[in-house]
Amino acid sequence: MKIGDRVVYVQDGTQGVIVEIHDNLYHIIWEDHFSSWELGERLRKVEAQS
């Protein structure tokens, strides 16, 4: 995963965008405009749909 990727929080399905990365911590801006730092294993990258 890299900055700019869309991700889903696996526990509740909330979607967001990665804005910063430090080791295995990802700073996410969520769809409700809340932001948080999350561990990589709690996130799943949203694959582009064609």
Report on the architecture of this protein:
This protein has one domain (6-45). 0% of the residues lie in helices and 52% in strands. It contains no helices and 5 strands. The protein has a 5-stranded antiparallel sheet with strand order 4-3-2-1-5, with no helix packed on it. A hairpin with a 2-residue loop joins strand 2 (15-22) and strand 3 (25-30). The mean pLDDT is 95. This is 5'-3' exoribonuclease 1 SH3-like domain-containing protein. Residues 2-43 form the 5'-3' exoribonuclease 1 SH3-like domain.
Descriptive key words:
single chain, 50 residues, mainly beta, 0% helix, globular, SH3_12, 5'-3' exoribonuclease 1 SH3-like domain-containing protein
Query: What is the percentage of strand-forming residues?
Result: over 45%
State the distance separating the first and last CA atoms. 20 Å
Class per helix and strand makeup: mainly beta
Number of helices: 0
Read across the widest sheet, the strand sequence of neighbours is 4-3-2-1-5
- Average the pLDDT over all residues and give the rounded result: 95
Helix content: under 10%
Largest sheet composition:
5 strands, antiparallel
How would the global form be characterised?
globular
The tally of domains stands at 1
Low-confidence regions = none
What is the number of strand segments?
5
**H/E element order:** EEEEE
Provide the gyration radius in Å: 10 Å
InterPro entries: SH3_12
Protein name: 5'-3' exoribonuclease 1 SH3-like domain-containing protein
Organism: Cohnella cellulosilytica
